[in-house]
Amino acid sequence: MASGYVAVESDEREHGPESLEFQSFLPNEGDASNNNTTSNNSNSSRGYLTDTPRGGFLSIEYYQQYFDVDTKTVLERCYSTLLPISATHRTTHLTPSPDLYGPFWTLTTLIFALFVSSSLASNVAAYLSSTPVDYDYDFKLLSLAVTIVYAYGLAFPVLLWLALRYMGVTEWSVVEAIAVWGYGQFVWIPVAFLCVIPIFLVRLILVVIAFGLSGYFLLVNIYPVLSSAEAKSARLLVIIVAVLHAALALTFLVVFFSYYAVHEIGPKDPIGDDTGPVGGASSIISSAVSSSMEAAATARMLW
């Protein structure tokens, strides 16, 4: 009887999951990480950061990463600028995540401190004056403080970063430049409130101390970057930084920390008569004339 089955020849190879092979066309992540590590080795090993593109330059996501920082970290970075001998006094304490929240907070608080302390000091000076003076808040000082602080704390580090990029220095990011200048101005906040003290010598000493601390913080952070440039002229930028920093301190002293109480000079009536200076002088002259007339009459009688 004929069978309903058909004989089929098959090879003896076993087909299973173990015999299947897949080829990946994706790049090796290890090689990519090695390439990135090699390219950034010179910058990371020296403690500086380069600009890493994350999203568009004009997108919010690009800047969001630089505001993701907690209060404790910001305060620690602020306090470290007041201690020149601390190990975190240099920018390496900003790595690997420099932020923009701390610099913006520091500069904005400094503007508020300058305006409030200057207004309060002027009120104190008006109160201590011999003649009471009504003080009106000068909001021009507020606009002036905004212009000076933001121009020096934001615009100048960006210009310095552009100059360094032009000279071939690429191991310093613009975010780190702004962070250095922003945190470097923290010392002016307590000094601004202490300058309410109505003693000019004390205010002068406080300004000199703030100038020295903030200037030293900037110097130890930017000089290694400037010295890494091939052009030796890049080191001359330190002079520009020092001059502008001295101009900032002098501006703070003259514009915001200069005030004095007006005291009356001499007694109210230097002649000694209640009729005033003119009346007192007239009475003295008339007394002298009458005395001379009496002396002349006495001399005639004796003659």
UniProtKB/TrEMBL annotation:
It is found in: Golgi apparatus membrane; Membrane. Residues 1-48 are annotated as: Disordered. GO terms for cellular component: Golgi membrane. The keyword Nucleotide-binding does not apply. Residues 97-249 form the Yip1 domain. Keywords: Membrane, Transmembrane, Transmembrane helix. Residues 33-45 have a biased composition (Low complexity). GO terms for molecular function: small GTPase binding. It comes from the Eukaryota. The chain crosses the membrane at residues 104-129, 141-166, 178-197, 204-224, 236-262. It holds the Pfam family Yip1. The keyword Membrane applies. GO terms for biological process: vesicle-mediated transport. It is a multi-pass membrane protein. Belongs to the YIP1 family. This is Protein YIP. The lineage of its organism: Eukaryota, Fungi, Dikarya, Basidiomycota, Agaricomycotina.
